[in-house]
């Protein structure tokens, strides 16, 4: 019996055999003492790839984002982000619980903030209002359909934040998808931001972990917050080695995921399905009347995907799905049309 075609997320990938070998052979130490060479290598590599002074390996993307929010704000501050932002939608209310901040959500087409909307959202400098201190941007935007920010928009947001004295954080969980799709190096994409998080366990295919990058001072502060949140790990190099392998070998191959998403989108469109797009990266969103019912029907036929809100399902391509898997997925959709 064939295994299901799993398009729920790019987080479902399994480590390749070569990645597993890198993990087994990784030199290890105690990272809380700062002496794990594999973690040090990953952090140095990530900082260099993102154009920042330093980096911190953490267990998850949520922790990376929340450590950044904590470092950039004080309790009672206002944080501005798109209404589709992962930090708000999918991180369990952590900004309120951990940092004691308010969030102002802005409408954003395809999840991409407009500088004019950010400017209009800044409250007056008055004791009656929470002071705005942080702007968060997500690139690519998950709920925006895997959309990629134009570089000029990122630069404009960064310049506006500097003018308004806002710190800036880029939720770059899928920044390397943005790099591959746009041809713009990740370091240039991250340039306007004080900090950037990168997820290793999505399109990069590592089993665990994210990296937070920023200035040396910010990362020193972040290391303390990570400890407070229980994120200090001991022989973490066995995990960091997977991240090193992913950065070395799994970035450019994301172009295959994007091509497969394009094929999936085109096939669904040709089959009469209501699909949003075309996709810019590795996500295909389809509009259906009964998302949960459709997910159940597809699962019974051998295709896994996710309901992501009223009237929408999401299908995500990744290194665990090849061309044959995409054709199977299209056949299953055709059988349900």
How would you describe this structure in keywords?
2 domains, 337 residues, seven-stranded mixed β-sheet, alpha/beta, single chain, Aspartate Aminotransferase, domain 1, four-stranded antiparallel β-sheet, Aspartate Aminotransferase, domain 2
- Round the mean pLDDT to the nearest integer and report it: 97
Q: Into which percentage range does the β-strand content fall?
A: 15-25%
Q: Structural class of the helices, strands and pairings?
A: alpha/beta
User: What's the arrangement of strands in the largest beta sheet?
Assistant: 2-8-7-6-5-3-4
* Intertermini distance: 23 Å
Radius of gyration: 20 Å
Q: Strand-and-helix sequence, N→C? A: EHHEHEHHEHEHEHHEEHHHEEHEEEH
- Oligomeric assembly: single chain
Tally the helices: 14
Q: Which stretches are low in confidence, meaning pLDDT under 50 for 5 or more residues running?
A: none
* CATH-scheme architecture of the largest domain: 3-Layer(aba) Sandwich
**Share of helix, binned:** 40-55%
Tally the structural domains: 2
CATH class of the largest domain equals Alpha Beta
Q: What name is given to the CATH topology of the largest domain?
A: Aspartate Aminotransferase, domain 2
Largest sheet: 7 strands, mixed
State the total count of DSSP E strands. 13
Q: Give me the CATH superfamily of the largest domain.
A: Type I PLP-dependent aspartate aminotransferase-like (Major domain)
């Amino acid at each position: 019996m064939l295994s299901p075609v799993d398009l729920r997320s790019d987080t479902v990938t399994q480590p390749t055999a070569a990645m597993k070998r890198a993990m087994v052979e990784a030199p290890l130490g105690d990272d809380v003492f700062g002496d794990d060479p594999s973690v040090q290598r990953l952090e140095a590599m990530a900082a260099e790839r993102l154009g920042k002074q330093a980096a911190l390996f953490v267990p998850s993307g949520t922790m990376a984002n929340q450590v950044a929010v904590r470092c950039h704000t004080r309790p009672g501050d206002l944080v501005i982000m798109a209404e589709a932002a992962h930090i708000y939608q999918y991180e369990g209310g952590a900004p309120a619980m951990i940092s004691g901040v308010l969030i102002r959500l802005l409408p954003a087409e395809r999840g991409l903030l407009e500088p004019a909307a950010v400017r209009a959202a800044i409250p007056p400098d008055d004791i009656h209002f929470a002071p705005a201190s942080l702007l968060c941007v997500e690139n690519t935007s998950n709920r925006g359909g895997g959309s990629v920010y134009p570089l000029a928009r990122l630069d404009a947001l960064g310049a506006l934040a500097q003018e308004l004295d806002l710190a800036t954080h880029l939720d770059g969980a899928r920044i390397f998808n943005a790099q591959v799709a746009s041809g713009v190096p990740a370091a240039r994409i991250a340039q306007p931001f004080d900090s950037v998080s990168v997820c290793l366990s999505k399109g990069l295919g590592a089993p665990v972990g994210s990296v937070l990058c920023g200035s040396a001072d910010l990362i020193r502060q972040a290391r303390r917050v990570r400890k407070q949140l229980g994120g200090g790990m001991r022989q973490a190099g066995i995990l960091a080695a997977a991240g090193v392998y992913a950065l070395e070998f799994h970035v450019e191959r994301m172009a295959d995921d994007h091509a497969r998403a394009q094929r999936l989108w085109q096939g669904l469109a040709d089959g009469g399905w209501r699909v949003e797009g075309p996709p810019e990266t590795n996500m295909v969103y389809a509009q259906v009347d009964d998302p949960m019912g459709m997910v159940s029907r597809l699962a019974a036929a051998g295709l896994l995907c996710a309901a992501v809100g009223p009237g929408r399902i999401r299908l995500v391509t990744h290194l665990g799905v090849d061309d044959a898997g995409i054709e199977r997925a299209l056949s299953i959709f055709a059988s349900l049309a």
